[in-house]
Every structure is written in structure tokens, then in C-alpha cells.
Structure prediction request, 847 residues.
Amino acid sequence: MIRSENLHFSYLHTDEGLPPQPALAGINLSVGKGDFVVIAGRNGSGKSTLARHINALLSPSEGTLWVNGIDTKDETQLWEIRKTAGMVFQNPDNQIVAATIEEDVAFGPENLGVPSEEIRTRVDSALAAVKMSEYANAAPHHLSGGQKQRAAIASVLAMRPSVIVFDESTSMLDPQGRREVLETIDGLRRTGITIILITHSMEEAALADRLIVMDRGKIVLEDTPRAVFRQANALTKLGLAVPQAAALAQALRERGVPVSDGILSAEDLLADEAVQKAALKYASANHPVPKVTAPLPSQPHPLLEIRNLTHIYNAGAAYEKKAVDGISLTIGKGETVGIIGHTGSGKSTLIQHFNALLTPTSGQVLIDGEDIHADKKKLKTLRQRVGMLFQYPEHQLFESDVYRDVAFGPTRMGLSDEEIKTRVVKALTIVGLGEDVYNKSPFALSGGQKRRAAIAGVLAMQPEILVLDEPAAGLDPQGREGTFSQITKMREELGLTVIIISHNMDDIARLCGRVIAVSQGKIIADGTPAEVFSQNRILEESGLDIPQVTRVMARLAESNPAIPTGIFTVEDAANVLSGGGEGPL
Amino acid sequence: MTRLTIGQYYPADSPLHRLDPRVKLLAAIAYITVLIFVTNFYGFGIAVLFLAVVIRASRVPARFIFRGLRAILFILSFAALINLLLTPGENVLFSYAFIQVTTEGIHRAALMALRLVLLITGSSLLTLTTSPIQLTDGIESLLKPLRLPAHDIAMMMTIALRMIPTLSEELGKIMKAQKARGVDLETGGPLKRIKNIIPILVPLFVSSFKRADELATAMEARCYRGGKGRTKLKPLGFTGRDALAGGIIVVFCVGLVLTRFI
Prediction:
């Protein structure tokens, strides 16, 4: 279906006269009809560049790529190629053209000059295939991310392609949306469509028939996902992370538990005989039935206090919506708190009260015992004590150079020039940006650098509490690691109280000493990660993901109640199952 | 921004909704033009009656139709007041300094207010019963004979309609982020306020350009190459019903102009 020989490509424009870096350096690819191939790799590995060649959006500088036997360099066949190989992009908002879903699905066939009656049947069947028929007349901005992305898939399907390339199409979605899109992809592959999925999520890679790992414009690993995951160390070096389940299998093998080769998911682990045996062995070893112990240490100094907070959007109107419903909580100085909850649970509304971006419908917000809404004049100073970083904070950069952008907040605070300078330099140093970027335009930085500059912009205001909403969204595993180690550094060096919102339970479990789960505007769980994750039933019922390891241990505990359930690290789980350890409790 | 009602469409299945958008567009233009020529209450009487029948046929609830009027309430009352107080005439009913209320004034003010109400109600009926896409299709088809780049104009309108809600959402997010960094949007003189807009506008422009670029790529990937050889999911079709509606409009307009001579 798709074949390439010695494919090379270089982007023409590069930074300040550096020699052009080849984005693709000799790719030999072969994808058969009906294959499901995942192409993975860190940011900048060339995987998206390769994807764009398959749709003839880019043309090779050297070498050849054939789609269904057609050379993509043949410009007379351009439309035939794009019809054959459809493409779904990353940002759902930036690929929907029309103001209603139905019209958008019709856009492709309209361009191809398909007769009206046939467009109608194509639109209807494409929408049915992605289960979006009832939204045919909906406006895109009324849909969730997952629904928008499914509509985008329907729009490609209506062109009747043989291949669909997904260019990081799940990376901007919440877990629910991601599941929806992956289910849709699974449905498509059953109909015989060839699927190429670009991703850096190894959980998604596990679904493929074949996994191709790219680095520096080359294919470095290519095999079944099972075989590739065996090379955990090689993957880490390539800036990718093995799924938790695979990592646990590896750790157990190292500890002498004969877990079978090629574990991809939690389900694989649970079906494995050696794992079941290990669980039984642990249970029969007369370990006491675990109590969830180790409560949170008492908070010596409450810094942020929320009292009976309720927020109602459009209060009084017929369509009013209660987003936060009587939440009370106290966060102590120096804590690292993770707030989890599915989209629409009210967690975003909740955090926007922390620095008075929203005013409570009823209830109070206190910082250091002072009601922030009590005195309007004090609001500005109190607001400065809580730094807020929204999702994709790099979108707030605007100054002509990085230094000025970081200095923006402190300047607003009316500080002296020297003080501003000290703060800016300190903030930039903590996020790991050196003097070489001070005078660069923030828009000339790489994606990861932009994010760090934006974080520095808030750090320079020297808040006591830092609220981060999905700080690692859209970053590859290496970028994630970098961001997290910086957060740890900030906490340790600046004594910051950190509040993190994330859909990624592994990240939350690793970073936070305390987890608060929010659902339907209420707190449903609050405690140490072990405590909260041991209530896995409650969490799953409210649509939350839990770490893969936690899920495995919870399932094992159903038949062997002695097994502790609040486990969330590979290390702890491996200790329990290899029979030796007591677990974390 | 969410209260933006321009081009608001009320989906329903009515004879008016089913009409060819070209007929509705031309009818709206004719209606607006003819209203200018109406000078007496006979004409307005006919117009009000006609509009009432059309509104009934559109199956759009009255409150949606009159919502558009709220926006112009101020202009409406102001204009009526000026006419009422400053029209010179023979039959003075009340006068104080340069203000005088005359029968002519009352007459003019009432006509003026009526005309404005009829104008707004009539034209909002067009957008309420015609989906944005039908409207752009209609405009495209009407512009074609004028040797204008009709397809491109229509495509631009479609994309604008698609992107306005997305960008307004984005604007809200950027405003919140910058507010958290100390931008004060509520206080200060005009100069300071303009300066405060920069941290909002620059990111909005940057992101709009990025969106435009990505959208263009996505359109290309779906074989977009301008209006040439394009077909339509819902092609415009001129039916007997449209001809009938056109006929009614012509009769109505001629009749309305003739009321001048009563």
C-alpha cells in the first residue's frame, strides 16, 4: 500500500544560518493493505514529517514514496494520492472547516466533485461509522474534544480512503476522548482500512500490529510491539517510556518471577499464570489484611483555605450550571497536591477561585487566614501570592524577547529594576533557560523551551502557591520528565506549595504527596496517593483513570484480599508480587 | 461574547426555512428598499400585517424575533425622541426653549420608530430562517454573475462563522492567563487600557495565524483547490414554491410603493 525507498527530506528554513538539519534521513518503509502500524518517537524525530509525505503535503528531497503504486512526486496525481491516503491532524479545532458537522464531512467529497446524492449517502455512512449521526447538525464548538476528533475522522472517511494517517490525533484529548478515538480506530481497522498512527504514547503503540520507532529522521526499531517493549532500555534512550504494565513485567522477571514475555497491558498481566501464582503466594504467606494507614501528616500551617465554596455559572438563568458544589478544603504550606477529575468535573472552576479569577457564588477563599474578597484593595497583592499556569501556558507569551516576557509580571508589581532583574534571572535559571535565549523572541524557541519560558514568567512573580493545569500536556516523555524535575526543584528550592491538575494518574501519583479527586463539583476522595488510589472503584465509577499498576493490584486483591490495593508504583508492585516486600504500607 | 446574536439561526421546519436562500436574500433586500419609500400609515399597516403573516409561517417563536430589537432599543428611543422634540411644525402642542412638540413631530417619530422596527425584524427573520451555510451559498450564487470571486468570498464567510466561537473561547483563556500575570483590564485611563490590550492581542494573533496555517493544511489534505469542479451536499434548487414566494414579494412591494399615492 505504502512503500518508500531511501526517503530524505530537509526543511529549508532553519534557525540563523545553521546548516539545514535533515528531518528524514533515508527511510525505507513498507506498509501492507489493512496493516495497523504505529510510528513513535520523541518530538523532532521526524515522525510527523514522514506522515506528511504519505499525504503528499510534503515532497521528498531525495528518494521516493509510493502510495498505492503512485509516486507522490507526480503532481498530476496529487488529488488521487490525497484521496487514497486521508489524514487526521492533532488539533481538532484546526481541521474542521464548516460551521456544522455534516457540512464539514461533506467538504472532502465536495472538493472531489462527487454528485450531491452520493455526497449525502457518504456523509450519512461516515457519520454512522464514527457514531456521530445524531450530531450531524451540531456546531463544532458545542462538541467535546473526542467528538470533534471523531467528526474529523468521518470527514476523512467520506473521501473513501484506503489509508488513514493519524498525526498525533489523540495527544490533545482527555482520557475519555482518547478512548473514543481509539475505539473508532479499532472499528476502522476491522473494515480493512490501513491505519498509520503517529504517537508518543506507548499504551497506544501496544495496540498496533507493528511498531516503528523513529529517531533523528531514521527508523531505529521496527517489530511487533511485544518485541519492541522487551528493549525497555533502548526505548528510554530514545526518549520514550514503556507502558507501566510492561515495566512491571520486566521488574518481576528481574526479581525471578517467571512472567511470560511480551506483556503489553494490565489485562495481559492479569491473565498471566505466574502473576496469579505470585498473588496467591503473597496471600497465603499470612500477611495481615492491609489497612490503608499512613494518613496525611497534620498540616502545621494552613496556607490556602476553601470554605463551603459553590460556583454556579449563569446563576438564575434557565441553563444555570452548578460547577462547584459546596467544597471545603485546606492546603498547608509546602504541600504538593494533585487534583484529579474528568473533564467537566468542576476542577478547573475550583482552581480559578484560588487567585480570584472567579468569584464564588457562595463560600469563602482564604489565603493565610485572610478572605481574598473581603477587601478589594488587597485583592491585587493576595492574587500575586498564587501563581497560575493554565494548559499550554506558552500561548500567553507576547513580548519581543524572552527576558521582557518573564519581566512582565514583576514589572506589573511595581518592583525596582534591580529586583526585577534578579527575579527574572533566577526564574529563568530554575527552568533551565540560559542567557543565550534572553534576547531571543519567545516565538523562536522550541515547544518545550516556550513552555519553560512561560513557567518562568509566573515564577518571577515569586508566588507562594503555584497552580499548574496539565503542565506536561503535549510534551513527549522526555519533555514530561524535564517539566516534572523542574517542578520538584521549584518546590525544594523556593519552598513553593504546588497544586497540579492532571489527567495522567501516573504523573500525579509520582509527584504529589496528596491527591484530591473531584466529581460533579464535589470532593469524592482526599488523602495520600495510596489512600485515594485504593478507592479504585469510586474513581473508576466517576470516569477517572487509575494507574495501570493500581488497576492490576486492585483486580488481584479481589480474589486475594490480603494484597494491598493502594499501590501505584512499579517498584512497590514488584516488591509485593515477588513475595518479599511488604509493599509501601 | 456568548450573547453574540448576529446571524443567529433558529432551526425549524417551516415553509420559510425551506425557501431557496437566494429568494430570501433578494426578498430581504427588496423589503428594506421598499420600506424607505413608505411614508404613511396605510403602507405601514400593510407591512405590519404582511410581516405578521410571514413570522407566523416561519414558526420562529416571537421572543427570538424581538430579541434583536433589544440591541437597538437605545438608538430607537433616542432617534424617536429627537424627532419628537425637534420637528418644526404648525400645530404646536407644547414648547419650552428650543424644544417643541408638534403633531408633525409625533407623526414623524412614530413613522421612524415603526420603520426601524420593521427593518430589524424583517432582516433578522432572514438570518433566523436561513442557516449560515445556506446564506453563504446564496450569496455565492448571487455574486457569481457579477464577476466577483464569489466562491472565495463565500468560503471566507464560512470559515469566519466557524472560527468566531473558537477564537472567542481562546480570547477568554488568554485574558484569564494575563490577568493572573497582573494585567488589569478594568481600571485606568484610555491610554493605559489600550496598552493593556497588547498582552491579549499579540497571543490571540499568534494563535490565529497558527490556526489559519493548520486549517489551510487540513483543507489541502482534503483536496481543496478553490471553487473549480466543486459539488455541493445541498445544491440550491429553485422550485415552484420559490417562484410563488417571489411573486408574492413582488406584489407586496409594488403595493407598498403605491400606498404613497393614497
Q: What stands out?
A: The longest strand of chain A covers residues 302-313.
